[in-house]
Amino acid sequence: MKILVLFDVHRTVGPDETFSVRSLRQDEEKPTEADVLSCLRKLEHEVQTLAIYDDVRSVIQRIDAFKPDVVFNLCETFRSDRAHEPNIPALLELLKVPYTGAGPEALVLCKDKALTKKLLTFHKVRVARFLVSSRERPLRRLGRFAFPAFVKPVGEESSDGIAKASLARTEEEALERTRFLHERFAGDVLIEEYVEGREMYVGVLGNRRLTVLPPREIFFGEPPAGEDAPRFATAKAKWDDAYRKKWGIRNGPAAPLPPGVERALSQTARRVYRILHIRGVGRLDVRLTPAGEIVVIEVNPNPSLAKEDDVAQAAAQIGVGYEVLVQRLLESALRWSGEPAS
Ligand SMILES: Nc1ncnc2c1ncn2[C@@H]1O[C@H](COP(=O)(O)OP(=O)(O)O)[C@@H](O)[C@H]1O
Ligand SMILES: [Mg+2]
Q: Which end of the chain is more exposed for a tag (fewer CB within 10 A), N or C?
């Protein structure tokens, strides 16, 4: 099959610049792109890469010239702006070329975390209670909001803007963090109920017939006596290996769960995936409260797909190795667009 691996970069890039697995991994620090490219080559597909920053014509021209059977879409930004993420699959849709992962609708519904939660609430899926502070008219009071609160940007990802100070114990702390986030990200801010509990990641594969992957869990080690570290996934806790090591933070298969919870997680994952029109692959971030309640924290269409990340690791746990996973994403893309899978 002819496959175009499409991804975003944060600098001007020539339409003919090519990328090797090594340059993606080392220079660009793009492990998902590196793993996917390497895998597609191993599967003996005919593969090209295209990086985009701000030149939409380069996409159209390359698709015209290369005529890929599928675009492996790994774009998260355009002109470094995450808000444009849905516009890339929208463009591919207009060009009538099959692409992997989510369509524009799922990305629009999930990238605005307040909108996601409003939809899920309508469908009686439990989410953290919340207020929205709009950038134009920031909240000045939180009324009878129950603390602690968790303050985060409405439209960011990858724990951007999530730090120790995200957990606010008082109205004053919450409003201060809110002001900071309005400035830093120039967008709206969510002030949420802080959900205590174990944190789990549930991957889902497919379009209509879904495979729910076994839950993964993030484990926060016990901090040394007298020291205090946040027990939630800050940017450091996710990405900084030295920090993870220091605080004993690791991701792995979920530790044993109370009876019925795995089934409930799986049912929640299926429902949420469908409500939000996700296809191809998705991942739910959830918390399991000490009372055994599942609370959806966030939903990710197009989650990161590096071999080491939770989705690929969870797939491997049920015998779906990386090559099979990548192949399934290609098949989902073709099936969705009505093309025969070859
Ligand atoms: N309401 C909440 N209660 C407790 N922890 C939260 C809450 N919201 C977010 N978190 C913590 O912050 C992390 C990042 O938040 P999330 O909404 O998943 O954003 P991102 O898109 O950056 O992953 C979560 O993995 C979780 O550890
Ligand atoms: Mg998350």
A: C
Does ligand 1 have an atom closer than 6 angstroms to the CB of 235?
Answer: no
Q: What CATH number should be reported for the domain whose range is 2-100? A: 3.40.50
Question: For 254-293, what is each residue's pLDDT tens digit?
Answer: 999 999 999 999 999 999 999 999 999 999 999 999 999 9
Host H or E run for residue 109: helix 104-111
Provide the pairing of β-strand 294-301 with 70-74: unpaired
Token pair for 247? 């605080």
3 lines ligand 1 (CB under 6 A): no
Any atom of ligand 1 within 6 Å of the Cβ of 112: no
The topology under which CATH files domain 129-193 is Dna Ligase; domain 1 (3.30.1490)
CATH of domain 196-337: 3.30.470.20
Q: Which atom of ligand 1 is nearest to the CA of 128?
A: 1
113 CA: nearest ligand 1 atom: 17
d(CA 292, CA 288): 6
**Where are the domains positioned within the chain?**
2-100, 129-193, 196-337
Measured in Å, residue 156 CA sits from the centre of ligand 2 at 9
- Whether pTM > 0.85 for this model: the answer is yes
Radius of gyration (C-alpha) of the chain in whole angstroms: 20
Pairing of strands 46-52, 149-153: unpaired
Instruction: Specify the amino acid at residue 245.
Output: K
